[in-house]
């Protein structure tokens, strides 16, 4: 973009510097699952961004460029309500630095509440509106979120009383949007009405369900059952319970002991206190019949392989088997016991009801679609949505729906209009949340002794140890879930009581909006993330339940058997099972489909934006393919990239991302609609040879700025954050061609950026280590640990890192055993997965392990260091000293450089780091004569943190 063109735009704050450090700190404070924004509790949805960064994206895209950082933070409700001697940003950073030293609550320490609990004061809103009208030619700018999802962006826009439009393709979040953006500001408080009708509903359902949840004694109401499957041994016909463990509530020391009879049956289950009771010598609560190898018959000891147990489950050759029960006692507390015939009788009654009741026989009888996330349940025989529930779970869902429908006409007659619809909608949302804690996909959470949830991560996974709930009585039952919904809905009502006009909520394709041409000032979009989340496939879990409640309330939302998938902008290979071939794989077709759909969405944004309008894209993804397709979609849509900002947005290694290097920052990428259209086809292409150096320079500069900034970013984040400036350079030069006039895609620029930033990270964190002089495999291995700070990470990331230094990771996989595949990702191997056992005779050693510790020389310095670790571990220090001298490692600079590098990149809780430390101290250190401060070994309160030598 040339300077003259930039001057034609109305400048906005997001194109200048932003207080991203303070906002990032607030994002991390919001990540506590016990203290989240109210709309998150109304109903589950996927991949919601934190409030502070969402507010920043909205206001930064609207405010004039001379708005100070202090003013922006005050609008965001960040900072104490008092005069400060320093900037608000500096104040927040100092509070973060001293957070672990606080005495009181987080709010007391920072001197102000979490921003998501605070709406701007009326005086602030009036001041903001005055500023915006002056900057936007007398009108308040309209904000559009075309892929609104859980509604964070439009909700924050509405809180500033801005004209707001929210669109969403999927019916499940659309219902949520109606609740928080329409009903809360328009209908207002519904607490008394919801409590009245919920009690009637629960009483009616409970009366019809009590026969399925009988207590074994008076005053012992069952709350939940830990369940498994019972199959028959192929060898002896004995009963095998398919549970991997017998813990019921590990923190309370409660386990369930199974007693087996001589007749190959299970005689009884007994709850044991592992601290107080006498435990049978042959009983280990952590060792159930099922292991990774298969299911061991407790009667004859024969192991049934996993494929066979899966076949039995798929074919329905099993019985449901409750073995532990959580119940409420007379004093109001909770206890645990073993399951009895009474519990199994309740389950059988439900089975008989399902088989004999025609209505129940058809309830939720909708096929699971063949998809990325549904393939595993289908492989276990769950072909219809009803199959993911046990008979007792199915009857429970059905009776609550029947109770709802019984009172529906009464509610409509008594209130009518929006109020009746709002009451019915909120009552239904509690019902669709219940299955998240009550299905065959829901595990029993053994540490605490309660049901877990299906969506702990974004996939469906059949559980061998699952739960059944008494939904009328349990903490995660209908009544308690609705109580929380009511509480949070009322919070939202209070947060929006100043709002004059609700948002406009639309349900449709973001590529085909019901919005006039050039009528929108600003688009803020958190788009679907490539192949990260299959929203529609996952949303069907809720949709099939909501449909039974709301199909006549919202006929246009629930007129299909399942959610819309064809128009969904995700890279879903399952959509191309039948058309792949002819040189194109399912994944390639899915990538192209995602790029086309995102281009269509951005083209639609181009249509509805006024000339010079602002579009800010919030993107959190580390896969180069995702960035490549996003950038191509933006470029094809003719937007001009004007700024990028990284903002810390997620806690590193959050749930679902443990042991992997995840992208923990959100990139705010801002584009502008040109005042005059450009024809890309007539633009003179730029040569890649010219653009390449500019992309590397931009990436290195961005990386150095980030490392100097003090932002809380992982090294993966530093690379991802450099993508923005890199793509801005590429977009300005587009179209780009190589020397043979072939089109160059953004991915090439990203590959250059990754390589350039990796070198910056080497310079920063491996000070004094010349890894370039190491062999390629060793260099790749060290760089993987340096960049990803985790044993497991994306295959594509590892492949790209290899390409940058000339390593084909697929070629080295078998011969070097430096890594293995783990669920499609790379998992790095330590010394114990590569070195043959020196304590075994040579002829008895595993030939599959490539490193022989008896060798006098090694093809790679990593092999030598791993062998040294192994010798130290197996033979001790004295023999290791001789081993090192015999191989002249006392004078081998590459051996020493590799050992020093591993000490700096490996997490301190890794076995290899401990062995590397042992080699670097004591008598072996006299041999190796390594030069570094011993403080490199000091613990700093974070065992997995990498450090530079210069930090000590």
Description of the molecule:
With 952 residues, the protein is an alpha+beta fold. It folds into three domains: 3-77 and 112-189 and 491-678, 3-Layer(aba) Sandwich (Rossmann fold), CATH 3.40.50.150; 207-391, no CATH class; 766-951, no CATH class. It has 32 helices and 25 strands. The strands form seven sheets. The protein has a seven-stranded mixed β-sheet, with helices on both faces. Strands 3, 4, 11, 12 and 15 form a five-stranded antiparallel β-sheet that branches. Strands 5-6-7 form a three-stranded antiparallel β-sheet, with no helix packed on it. The longest helix is centred in the middle third of the chain and has 25 residues, at 391-415. It is globular and about 80 Å long. It starts with a helix and ends in a 24-residue tail after the last helix. Mean pLDDT is 89; it is low at 1-7, 651-663 and 940-952.
Topology of this protein?
Blueprint: H1 3-7, H2 20-30, H3 38-42, H4 51-60, H5 69-75, H6 88-97, H7 106-110, H8 122-135, E1 143-145, H9 152-159, E2 164-168, H10 171-186, H11 191-209, E3 221-232, E4 239-241, E5 247-249, E6 254-260, E7 266-273, E8 290-291, E9 294-296, E10 303-305, H12 306-314, E11 319-328, E12 334-338, H13 341-356, H14 358-362, H15 375-379, H16 391-415, H17 417-433, E13 444-445, E14 450-451, E15 466-469, H18 478-495, E16 504-507, E17 520-525, H19 535-550, H20 586-608, E18 609-619, H21 624-636, E19 640-648, E20 665-672, E21 686-687, H22 688-709, H23 715-733, E22 736-737, H24 746-765, H25 776-788, E23 792-793, H26 795-804, H27 809-816, E24 819-822, E25 825-828, H28 861-875, H29 877-886, H30 893-905, H31 911-920, H32 922-928
Parallel strand pairs: 1-2, 1-17, 2-16, 17-18, 21-22
Antiparallel strand pairs: 3-4, 3-11, 3-15, 5-6, 6-7, 8-9, 9-10, 11-12, 13-14, 18-20, 19-20, 23-25, 24-25
């Amino acid at each position: 973009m040339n300077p003259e063109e930039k001057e034609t735009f109305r400048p906005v704050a997001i194109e200048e510097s932003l207080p991203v450090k303070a906002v990032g700190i607030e994002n991390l404070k919001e990540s506590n699952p016990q203290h989240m924004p109210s709309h998150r509790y109304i109903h589950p949805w996927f991949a919601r961004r934190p409030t502070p960064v969402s507010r920043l994206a909205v206001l930064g895209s609207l405010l004039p460029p001379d708005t100070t950082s202090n003013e922006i933070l005050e609008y965001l409700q960040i900072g104490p309500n008092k005069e400060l001697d320093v900037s608000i940003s500096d104040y927040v950073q100092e509070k973060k630095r001293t957070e672990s030293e606080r005495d009181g609550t987080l709010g007391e320490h920072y001197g102000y509440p979490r921003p998501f609990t605070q709406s701007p004061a009326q005086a602030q809103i009036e001041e903001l509106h005055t500023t915006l009208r002056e900057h936007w030619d007398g009108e308040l700018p309209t904000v559009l979120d075309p892929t609104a999802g859980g509604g964070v962006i439009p909700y924050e826009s509405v809180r500033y009383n801005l004209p707001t439009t929210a669109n969403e393709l999927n019916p499940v979040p659309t219902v949520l949007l109606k609740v928080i953006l329409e009903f809360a500001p328009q209908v207002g408080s519904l607490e008394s009405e919801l409590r009245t009708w919920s009690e009637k509903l629960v009483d009616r359902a409970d009366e019809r369900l009590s026969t399925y949840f009988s207590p074994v004694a008076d005053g012992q109401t069952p709350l939940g059952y830990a369940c498994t499957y019972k199959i028959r041994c192929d060898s002896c016909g004995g009963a095998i319970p398919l549970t991997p463990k017998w813990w019921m509530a590990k923190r309370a020391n409660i386990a369930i002991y199974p007693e087996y009879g001589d007749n190959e049956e299970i005689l009884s289950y007994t709850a044991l206190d592992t601290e107080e009771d006498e435990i049978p010598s042959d009983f280990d609560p952590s060792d159930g019949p099922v292991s990774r190898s298969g299911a061991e018959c407790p009667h004859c000891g024969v192991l049934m392989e996993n494929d066979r147990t899966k076949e039995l489950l798929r074919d329905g050759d099993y019985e449901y088997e409750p073995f532990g029960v959580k119940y409420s006692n007379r004093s109001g507390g909770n206890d645990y016991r073993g399951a009895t015939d009474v519990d199994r009788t309740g389950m059988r009654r439900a089975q008989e009801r399902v088989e004999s009741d025609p209505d129940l026989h058809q309830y939720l009888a909708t096929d699971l679609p063949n998809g990325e996330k549904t393939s595993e349940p289908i492989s276990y025989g769950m072909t219809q949505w009803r199959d993911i529930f046990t008979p007792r779970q199915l009857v429970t869902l059905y009776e609550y729906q029947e109770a709802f429908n019984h009172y529906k006409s009464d509610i409509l007659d008594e209130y009518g209009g929006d109020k009746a619809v709002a009451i019915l909608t909120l009552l239904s949302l509690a019902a669709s949340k219940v299955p998240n804690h009550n299905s065959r996909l829901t595990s029993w959470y053994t540490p605490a002794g309660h049901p877990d949830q299906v969506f702990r991560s974004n996939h469906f996974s059949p559980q061998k140890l699952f739960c059944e709930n008494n939904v009328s009585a349990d903490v995660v039952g209908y009544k308690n879930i609705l109580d929380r919904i009511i509480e949070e809905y009322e919070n939202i009502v209070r947060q929006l009581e100043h709002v004059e006009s609700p948002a406009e909520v639309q349900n449709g394709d973001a590529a085909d909006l019901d919005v006039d041409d050039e009528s929108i000032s600003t688009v803020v979009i958190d788009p679907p993330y490539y192949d990260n989340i299959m929203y529609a496939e996952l949303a069907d879990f809720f949709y099939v339940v909501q449909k039974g409640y709301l199909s006549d309330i919202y006929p246009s939302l629930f007129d299909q058997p399942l959610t819309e998938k064809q128009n969904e902008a995700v890279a879903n290979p399952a959509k191309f099972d039948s058309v792949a071939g002819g040189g194109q794989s399912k994944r390639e077709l899915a990538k192209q489909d995602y790029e086309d759909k995102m281009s269509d969405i951005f083209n639609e944004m181009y249509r509805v934006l006024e000339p010079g309008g602002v579009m800010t894209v919030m993107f959190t993804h580390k896969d180069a393919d995702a960035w490549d397709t996003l950038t191509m979609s933006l470029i094809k849509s003719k937007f001009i990239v004007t700024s990028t900002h990284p903002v810390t947005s997620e806690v590193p290694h959050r749930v679902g991302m443990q042991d992997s290097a995840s992208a923990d920052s959100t990139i705010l990428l801002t584009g502008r609609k040109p005042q005059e259209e450009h024809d890309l086809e007539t633009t003179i292409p730029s040569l890649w040879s010219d653009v390449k150096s500019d992309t590397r320079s931009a990436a290195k500069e961005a990386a150095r700025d980030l490392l100097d900034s003090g932002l809380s970013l992982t090294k993966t984040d530093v690379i991802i954050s450099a993508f923005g400036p890199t793509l801005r350079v590429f977009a300005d030069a587009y179209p780009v061609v190589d020397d043979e006039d072939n089109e160059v895609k953004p991915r090439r620029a990203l590959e250059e950026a990754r390589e350039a930033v990796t070198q910056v990270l080497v310079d920063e964190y491996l000070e004094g280590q010349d890894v370039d002089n190491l062999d390629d495999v060793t260099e790749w291995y060290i760089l993987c640990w340096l960049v990803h700070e985790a044993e497991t990470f994306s295959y594509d990331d590892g492949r790209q890192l290899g390409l940058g230094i000339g390593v084909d990771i697929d070629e080295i996989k078998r011969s070097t055993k430096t890594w293995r595949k783990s669920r499609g990702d790379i998992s790095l191997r330590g010394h114990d997965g590569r070195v043959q056992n020196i304590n075994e005779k040579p002829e008895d050693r595993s030939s599959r392990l490539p490193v022989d510790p008896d060798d006098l020389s090694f093809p790679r310095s990593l092999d030598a260091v791993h062998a040294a670790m192994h010798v130290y571990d197996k033979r001790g220090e004295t023999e290791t000293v001789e081993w090192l001298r015999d191989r002249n490692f006392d004078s081998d600079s590459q051996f020493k450089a590799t050992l020093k590098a591993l000490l700096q990149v490996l997490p301190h809780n890794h076995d290899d780091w401990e062995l590397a430390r042992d080699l670097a101290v004591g008598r072996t250190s006299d041999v190796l004569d390594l030069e570094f401060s011993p403080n490199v070994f000091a613990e700093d309160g974070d065992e997995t943190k990498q450090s530079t030598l210069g930090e000590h």
